[in-house]
């Protein structure tokens, strides 16, 4: 389904008092309904209680040790994960606004399009990081390389490569 909406220039020099928009940022009107749903499959526990404390980008080599706590209903889906050195983690930036088209990441005198940035402010606030897996205890994965607030919802865990090697041939679209 496609929705059209006119961009709303909601910020600029005259950003409204109390607005969390920065100068030169631009928003749009969100569609009236969602097109799909997601299940949160767990939560990410980190040392950071506020966005301003988080690293801008996680460091897989020497970042803080974080705990990915998976909902136990998905435990069986961890079979095979313990052998992976690195994982790709997808998480839902639940504190981010979703209507911003142009952003001013450094409080400069210009703005950049949302799709040219890895900012959490996006229509579907999905973040991804490649992390180093330190160990698994039950349904908890201890990893380095995250950059999110404590309690951020988890939406997926994937190997960087399924068989720890680059894919060489055409893939089986269902299982690869
Ligand atoms: C720039 S994003 C990068 C996220 C991910 N590594 C990526 O590239 O998709 C990381 C920043 O998002 C912000 N952030 C962290 N957790 C958040 C949350 N739950 N909701 C909204 N913003 C969050 C913090 O300011 C953090 O520094």
From TrEMBL:
It comes from the Bacteria. Pfam families: TrmO_N. NCBIfam families: tRNA_TsaA. InterPro entries: TrmO-like_N, YaeB-like, YaeB-like_sf, YaeB_N_sf. Residues 38-169 form the TsaA-like domain. It comes from Paracoccus sulfuroxidans. The keyword S-adenosyl-L-methionine applies. This is tRNA-Thr(GGU) m(6)t(6)A37 methyltransferase TsaA. Residues 1-18 have a biased composition (Low complexity). Belongs to the tRNA methyltransferase O family. Keywords: Methyltransferase, S-adenosyl-L-methionine, Transferase. Residues 1-32 are annotated as: Disordered. The keyword rRNA processing does not apply. One of its GO terms (biological process) is methylation. PANTHER family: TRNA (ADENINE(37)-N6)-METHYLTRANSFERASE. GO terms for molecular function: methyltransferase activity.
């Amino acid at each position: 389904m496609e929705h059209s909406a006119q961009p709303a220039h909601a910020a600029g020099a005259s950003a409204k008092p109390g607005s969390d928009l920065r100068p030169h940022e631009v928003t749009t009107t969100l569609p009236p309904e969602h097109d799909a749903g997601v299940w949160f499959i767990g939560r990410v526990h980190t040392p950071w209680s506020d966005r301003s404390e988080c690293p801008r980008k996680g460091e897989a080599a020497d970042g803080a040790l974080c705990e990915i706590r998976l909902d136990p209903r998905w435990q069986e889906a961890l079979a095979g994960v313990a052998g992976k050195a690195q994982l790709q983690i997808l998480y839902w930036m639940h504190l981010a606004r979703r209507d911003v088209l142009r952003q001013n990441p450094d409080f400069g005198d210009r703005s950049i399009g949302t799709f040219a940035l890895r900012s959490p402010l996006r229509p579907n606030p999905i973040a991804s990081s490649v992390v180093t897996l330190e160990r698994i205890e039950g349904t908890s994965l201890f990893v380095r390389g995250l950059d999110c607030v404590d309690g951020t919802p988890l939406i997926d865990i994937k190997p960087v490569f399924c068989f720890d090697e680059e894919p060489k041939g055409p893939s089986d679209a269902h299982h690869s």
